[in-house]
Amino acid sequence: MYALPLARLVLNQSTILRSTALVPDSMPPITPPMSVPERSQTTTATVQSISKTYRQGIRQVDALRDVSLDVEAGSFVAVMGASGSGKSTLLHLMSGLTRPTSGSVLIEGQNIADLSDYELTCFRRRRIGLVFQAFNLVPSLSARDNILFPLYAAGESLTDESELTELAQQLGIEDRLHHRPDALSGGEQQRVAIARSLITNPAIVFADEPTGSLDSVTGDSICRLLRNLCDQQQRTIVMVTHEPSVAVWADSVVVLKDGQIVSQFLTKQCTDAQYLAARYQQIVSADALDLTHSR
Domains in the chain: how many in total? Predict the structure, then answer.
């Protein structure tokens, strides 16, 4: 009974510390959440020749090799690839969760690789939305406080309650705002996570296997929701998935293999998920065949 007030107390104390010690007065206020992002340029994200190398003892692992990609404003891009292809690494680099070994990532023209850790945290908090497979909600907080958590972390508060109400209604969770995650279904938790990613009106939303922990019916509803956000609010979305039935909701598909982009194509060229799956397999198999013949 006292878990939620205690969590709010701790959160408020953290907010005070952040607002007085971490967030400079010069930081611009957060744009109202439900305003449609202004599109001053046609490209929201640009990846320029990025590579990512890890060390495993004396062994060097090239997770990504010289990858370049443009993501147009208001587009919905699916990144596909087998496990170990580098698709999650690409998403982590584009969202600023990790830094490239070489190359650059531009979000709204800002090279996030040039930012300090603190600057990157502030930029990511305001201009980048993140949706994870495991939801990553705070168990002791209500859905409402989970959604508003990015504002709390920035030392901000919601100035107009109607903005949250509108967002919750659009995502179908208006009657679940006062429930904690353990009282929500998987689909409801993911909708809360999506609302959290949108609350700061980001330039771009990155979704890492957003349907991976959901059943097919619930996953389909999440895909439809992401599609509607792109169509109705011109949201820019980059989604990692290995499921053709999920990728078919996007505008275009980027196929990764062994840390490199091997193909890109428009989903309108595919009549359904089965056709997309066949095309994906054809691309991956043809690439493997080319490598075999080159040896």
Answer: 1
